[in-house]
Write a structure and sequence with these properties.
The structure is a single chain. By secondary structure, the chain is an alpha/beta fold. It folds into two domains: 244 residues, Spore Coat Polysaccharide Biosynthesis Protein SpsA, Chain A (Alpha-Beta Complex), CATH 3.90.550.10; 55 residues, no CATH class. Helix content is 32%, strand content 15%. The protein has a seven-stranded mixed β-sheet, with helices on both faces. It has a two-stranded parallel sheet with strand order 7-9.
Length: 322
């Protein structure tokens, strides 16, 4: 059984990809990471060699360790990456030469703090998802009603098995659950006609969203149709970890997620702490994973940032912005 990981990145998010892979390796990962990217390849990927994968001219392969390699796949789509996650995953599953049985999509601002054995156990339980910071969203919340009204015009109905609202940063699917990805993709295409195309997003780098839908039901675009797909897809199990998994509330983390524009590699921790935003679990996880087989920043910068986090954390324990 082959379990792979994939991600999508551009610009300075290559820092997150390096830390993500380091964290996977520390957790015992063995296999291949498929990294779709736009723009130049990462500066730390200079040893990558050309590889052939149908549909991705210019692909290259970087051996990280004997037990791990990264396939860099150039993406030539104008769509915002957040809106094409199901397309990317389906395209990988469709390549018989890759032999993928199960696939995790992980955002490039996530690091793994659990073991890889936990991840393989988790994905065997059903579609692997993590509860979002905005969860729960009750059955007749305007957001869910908006999905019913917009997609109902296309003959699509929903039966939501849970009030949990999941985050789009982690999706784990087996080949037997491809119908879930197909439904997510179908809903994304319908949504594109409402919000102004798959390039539209409120996230960084997105085009202007022309219409947010009834009850602002598409202001999180890919995440909204991901959640709608849960109500559309019957016959599969959903294994949803609580908000602690992505460090959205205190507790044991699995995949701390640095949501928002203040990514760990961009932050100035002492300044941010004095402004009321001390370091969190995603920051600590990133800088803990910044060194390893892959290094996107210098050793000196890692030492400075780790020291800054320790000091900022100490300050944050007694200082609160008034």
């Amino acid at each position: 059984m082959t379990i792979a990981v994939c991600t999508l990145f551009e610009k300075d998010y290559h820092h997150g990809v390096a830390a993500l892979v380091n964290s996977l390796l520390r957790g015992g990962f063995v296999g291949r990471v498929y990294a779709g990217y736009r723009g130049p390849p990462p500066p730390w990927a200079g040893r990558a060699v050309p590889m052939v994968i149908e549909g991705w001219p210019g692909a290259s392969l970087l051996a990280v360790e004997t037990r791990c390699e990264i396939a860099f796949l150039p993406m030539r789509t104008p769509a915002h990456f957040t809106n094409i996650k199901p397309d990317f995953m389906l395209q990988l599953f469709a390549q018989p030469s890759l032999g993928i049985d199960k696939l995790f999509y992980l955002d490039p601002d996530i690091c793994m703090t659990e073991t890889w054995q936990f991840m393989t156990d988790w994905i065997s339980c059903g579609v692997a998802l993590c509860e979002d910071i905005n969860s729960p969203v009750e059955q007749h919340h305007p957001r869910r009603e908006g999905w019913r009204r917009h997609f109902g015009a296309h003959g699509i109905s929903f039966e939501f098995p849970t009030a949990a609202y999941v985050n789009g940063g982690c999706v784990g699917v087996s080949r037997a659950e491809l119908c879930f990805l197909e439904n997510w993709q179908r809903l994304s295409q319908h949504m594109a006609g409402i919000i102004g195309g798959l390039g539209a997003s409120l996230l960084e780098g997105g085009d202007h969203i022309q219409h947010l839908g009834f009850g602002r039901c598409f202001d999180r675009s890919d995440q909204d149709v991901l959640n709608a797909a849960i109500g559309m897809t019957r016959g599969v199990n959903y294994s949803i970890l609580p908000q602690t998994a992505m460090a959205f509330c205190p507790g044991a983390t699995v995949l701390p997620h640095a949501i928002g524009p203040a990514k760990p590699w961009r932050r100035r921790y002492l300044r941010d702490t004095l402004r009321g935003r001390p370091p969190g679990a995603p920051d600590k996880a990133f800088w803990s994973s910044a060194d390893g087989p892959l290094s996107s920043v210098s050793a000196a910068q890692i030492r400075r940032q780790r020291a800054s986090i320790r000091l900022a954390s100490a300050i944050g324990r007694w200082y609160q912005r008034r």
